Amino acid sequence: MTQTIFTIVAEIEPERLDVLRDVVAEIAADPASNSVLALGDFQTLHFASVVIFGSPHLPDTLIFENNVDGTLDDWLPILVARRRAGIDDLFANCVGYPVGGTVRAVEAWLGAHVVRPGAYHVGATGRSLVRIRQEAELRNAIEGFIASEQEAGGLGGSPESVRSAIQGFVRSDPRFSWAVNTPPRQTWSERAGHLARLAVLAAGVLVTSPVLIPLLVVWVGVLRWKEATDRVQKGQPDIEWVNAQLAAEDRHPQNHLASVVAVKPGVVRLTTLNIVLWVLNRLARVLYARGDLGGIPSIHFAHWALIDRGRHLLFVSNFDGSWESYLGDFIDKAKAGLTAVWGNTVEFPRTWFVAFAGAADGPRFRAWARANGCPTAAWYSAYPNLTMPIIDNNSAIREGLYASLRGEEVQAWLRRL
């Protein structure tokens, strides 16, 4: 199934900033069921966030993140039709919003301000919000059945007989009729399509190598000179800015992170960044289509996107655990990718040949990340108490429920409960 990640990015009218903050504060007080924009009313919205950010080089900007099932064309009409008043309350504070306009005019304005990711990751690949909730309900019901049977002295015998009893319980409950046949998380044709794009790129590079190799030598030389001379951050981030970020963290097993940082000036850096994002995005579709990202299993949805006509890089992530553990996982397991991307942004720790050093300098990278983080003004999760390992385990329970399992496979399946 299709899952779409995008942000709506719009400049805020300076005189409307305080009004907007009040609107967002009302959403933040109860993201699922507030009176402005009740995000919990949608059956296809996994995560959403609102960030208000401005700097000396970027006007005050509203960033509305959406992670949804289906396509953008599916989502925008639903959003406007069901929550037009809330959309008006939110975006009427932005430059050019068609206050009092037709539905078509509002949808067109929102669509014109959509920013697609340059690279993204989906943890629960191919699993809709409905399916994630269904699989959690299924596991809870099975565990409840096991507990009641054991209390009554039942469920004795072999692992196969226990599994058979569980299957009988599930079949007897009409709530779980969907569990018999559920589509796979990702089809081979989807992965093959992304692999084909990488193959075409490799073939193109091979064919044009007589031209590309001399150009690449010059490009690398320019990059190495820039890497050696670019300004890097010194010292620690402003404590009040850090405290503003901390205030929105660690309220659930999940957390949210947003970052906006200026891209280093010049065509070399912007072109390098676009190439890196494209390659990482293709690799993510092929290598990390089963959920984890480079050995990191805690990310639900994350993406990088260029905003402000390529002058700033936005990063947004919805993840499990603390900010410290999240950054630690990236430093340990994915520092080359982080360095290749963020090394093209201002004051990043010094890099070496694009993908080396940089994020490997843990203390400096953490200080830089905090300095460039954005306080999350409002954040919504459709399942705040479900971590990615729990979601994956619930899917494995459902996938193995009627699968052909034998011997140790049956026991391994039962251990998931």
Chart the SSEs and their pairings.
Elements: E1 3-11, H1 17-29, E2 45-55, E3 58-69, H2 72-82, H3 84-91, H4 103-112, E4 114-115, E5 119-122, H5 129-151, H6 159-172, H7 188-207, H8 209-229, H9 239-246, E6 254-262, H10 267-287, E7 299-307, E8 312-320, H11 323-333, H12 335-342, E9 351-352, E10 356-357, H13 362-371, E11 378-381, H14 388-401, H15 408-415
Antiparallel strand pairs: 1-3, 1-4, 2-3, 2-11, 5-7, 6-8, 7-8, 9-10
Walk me through what this model shows.
- The protein is an alpha+beta fold and 417 residues long.
- 48% of the residues lie in helices and 18% in strands.
- It contains 15 helices and eleven strands.
- A five-stranded antiparallel beta sheet has the order 4-1-3-2-11.
- Strand 9 (351-352) and strand 10 (356-357) form a beta hairpin.
- Helix 2 crosses helix 4 and helix 5 packs across helix 14.
- The two termini are 27 Å apart.
